[in-house]
C-alpha cells in the first residue's frame, strides 16, 4: 500500500477572493473561494486520484476500506480546511457534543487553527467579557459589541485551540490550516451589520449561540502541552492530542523516514519535496494509511491530523 492523493474541494464565501487559489497553487479554483476542504466527508467528499482507488471518495474509503484507517464503526472525525480570508468572518460559536446530540447532530465542534502566515498586527476574535447570560444580553441589547468581544493578536506559526463554546472569528490578514470536528454547525453571533448584494444582512442564530456560549474565564488560556521530537533531517511537533483530534507538524530538511502507527491526513503547507517517490508541493493533500511508512526528501512542512 502507498500514500493516496485527494483533490481539494473549493468553498465559496463572502470573504473569499483569490488568495486561496494563489497561495496554494489551486489554479483551477474560481474567484470567490475563501477556503478549500483538504479532507472532508461532509456535504461533499474529496475524490481520490491514486490507484487503486482512483475516482472513489474519501467517504467510500472510510466506509468500505477500514484497513486504511483502523477505526471501524466510527464516524469520520474531522474536516481539514485551508483558509485565506480577505475580509473578517462573522463572529460565531459552536456547540459541544451534548448540545449537538440533543439537536440531531452526530457530534459537537471543537476546532484548532495553525497560522501558516499572519500579517503584522493580525488578530482574531477569541472570547468575550460577559460574566453570565444576563450580562451578555445587556451587551447585545445595548449593541456594545466592541466592549463585549475579546481579540487576540496572532503570529505566524501560532497554534490556537478553539473548544466548543468559545466566541471566535477569523479575521483577514492570515492564512490558516484549520482542523474541526466533522460537523459543519455554525451559530452566527454577530456579523458587523454587513449586507449582501441584495442589501440584506445575513441571518444570525442568536438563540442557539447564547445557549452554547461558555462563561468559563479560562477557556481562552490556550494552554497546550506541545511536544517536540527531533529525528534525522526532520522535526516533529505535536500541538494537541485529545478525544477530538491529534495534530502534528513535520518539518523536513533532507532524507528522512516517518511512521506514526495511525493513519494521517497530510497536507503540505510550505515548500516541496518527495514522499514515497511522489513529488509533492504546497497545497498537496494525501492520506498516509495505517501501516504505511513515508520516506521523504526535500525542504517542506507537512501538517498531519488524525484521531
Report on this structure.
With about 300 residues, this protein is mostly beta strands. It folds into two domains: about 5-210, Jelly Rolls; about 225-305, Jelly Rolls (Sandwich). The protein has six helices and 20 strands. It has helices at about 20-25, 60-65, 95-100, 135-140, 145-150, 205-210, and strands at about 5, 10-15, 35-40, 80-85, 90-95, 110-120, 125-130, 150-155, 160, 170, 175-180, 185-190, 225-230, 235-240, 245-255, 255-260, 265-275, 280, 285-290, 295-305. Strands 1, 13, 14, 15, 16, 17, 18, 19 and 20 form a nine-stranded antiparallel sheet that branches. GO terms for molecular function: mannose-6-phosphate isomerase activity; zinc ion binding. It holds the Pfam family PMI_typeI_cat. Its cofactor is Zn(2+). Keywords: Isomerase, Metal-binding, Zinc.
Compact description:
By secondary structure, the protein is mainly beta. 12% of the residues lie in helices and 39% in strands.
**DSSP E strands, number:** 20
Low-confidence stretches: none
Number of domains: 2
The portion of residues assigned to helices is 10-25%
Specify the overall morphology: globular
**Contiguous helical run count:** 6
Radius of gyration: 20 Å
- Percent of residues in beta strands? 35-45%
Structure characteristics:
single chain; Jelly Rolls; 12% helix; 2 domains; 9-stranded antiparallel β-sheet; mainly beta; metal-binding; 6-stranded antiparallel β-sheet; 6 helices; 307 residues; Mannose-6-phosphate isomerase, class I
Helix-strand blueprint:
Layout: E1 4-5, E2 9-17, H1 19-23, E3 33-39, H2 58-64, E4 78-83, E5 91-93, H3 97-102, E6 111-118, E7 123-128, H4 133-141, H5 145-148, E8 149-153, E9 159-162, E10 168-169, E11 174-181, E12 187-190, H6 206-212, E13 227-231, E14 234-241, E15 246-253, E16 256-258, E17 264-275, E18 278-281, E19 285-288, E20 294-306
Antiparallel strand pairs: 1-19, 2-3, 3-4, 4-11, 5-12, 6-9, 6-11, 7-8, 7-10, 13-14, 14-15, 15-20, 16-20, 17-18, 17-19, 17-20
